[in-house]
User: What shape does this take?
Amino acid sequence: MEELDGNAIAGQLVEVFGRDMTRAHGACAHCGTESQLAELVVYPGGPGTVVRCRACGNVAFVFVTVRQTTCIDVAGFALDVIS
Assistant: This one.
């Protein structure tokens, strides 16, 4: 499976949040490692895009697009501030 960095999901982040979020900071909900979204590990393809913590490998969030609507589960990653 191809492994990319968080810059690979820049377009999806703009679609969901309305702006570039690759430089946003947050922490893995599992291990607490702090990073920018661009530093996370992205696995594209399949029915969705899976984004994992680079330190522990836990799922940070998942993108799924159904009928031109993108949904995101961010339960595994806590963003510091969305402004």
User: Anything to note?
Assistant: Residues 17 and 82 are 9 Å apart (CA to CA).
